[in-house]
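Hallway conversation turned thread

IA: we were arguing at lunch whether anyone had actually written out LysR family transcriptional regulator end to end. Turns out nobody had. So, for the record, here is the sequence (348 residues) and right after it the structure tokens. Reply here if something looks off.
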Amino acid sequence: MNIRFLETFIWLARLQNFRLTAEKLHTTQAAVSSRIASLEETFGVRLFDRNSRSATLTPAGRKMLAYAERIVRLGDEMRREVEDASGDAGLIRIGVIESIVHSWFPALMARVRERFPHLEVEVTSDTTIHLVQLLRADAVDLILQTDPLPERDFVNHPLCEFPMRWVASPSLGLAGTRVDLAQLAALPILSFSRHSGPHTALERAFARAVERPVRINCISSVAAMIRLVSDGFGVAALPPAIIQRELHEHTLEVLDVESAFAPLPLVASYRLQSHPLPARIAELATEQARAFVAALGPELEGLSAREAGDAARGAAKSMKSTKSTSATKSAKGVEGARTTKAAGNRKR
């Protein structure tokens, strides 16, 4: 007995019309008639009274309807249970930081929906510190963030790195000139949440470069930080990867700062002995993150195609000049050795 035939029987009983049932099931009226005829032949009874306009259940059909609905429900339940056991269905709770939400996370979710169509995804966006707490408390299954967990019962899957650059609003007039941290310290500084990796790195950098204490404004929302910097409130170290629109629209610009800022590492973390789904989605996240980085190319560093070309040509010119200088020195050295040797021969 075909469950699809029972589903057809149920819908015809509800709609009482062959055409409407065919439209509901995306099939033809002939297919609906064939399925009902097959069921009637199997059970040896007439299930519907038919006329030109409608189809109504016979007493045997009404008795069969309750059983058909139970069988279809059991079939659906069986399918869900089998899919859950295979690891391709169920619920996964993912925690993610805003820097990833603003870059490649939407594309990752599209891939997850395509790869696991029966999987339910619950997303929590928060800071790394809070996401780590949630993972340790088993409140989420997988986190995409910046700090590897040191405990042995967690897996840390490297995703990619985002270069960090100092950015500001063009209204501050800082572009086109090289600035140092001491000059930046005179402006309001915006950073990620307190005790985060970027915030700690920023404190250390200013402690080395500036004698007086530097006040750092901690903003937990990346969107809020971008808005404040775009409006000229201050300067911030951000990954160009997450401000591509602002850079293209010239509401933000990358500054030429003497001190380099460490890149932002991104990792996927989950429990070692967990369901296989977190590991499989972490693999998809790695592929998506690296594809995103590769697609951005020089823009990942906040460089336009022209700037990247100028930088490459400058590096090539510098390398050529270095090689030429080395070759000249080498030739002079050889010539000097020959002169010394000739003088020695004359003395003898």
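OS: looked through it. Residues 305-316 have pLDDT under 50 and may be disordered.
IA: good, adding that to the notes. The longest strand covers residues 154-162.
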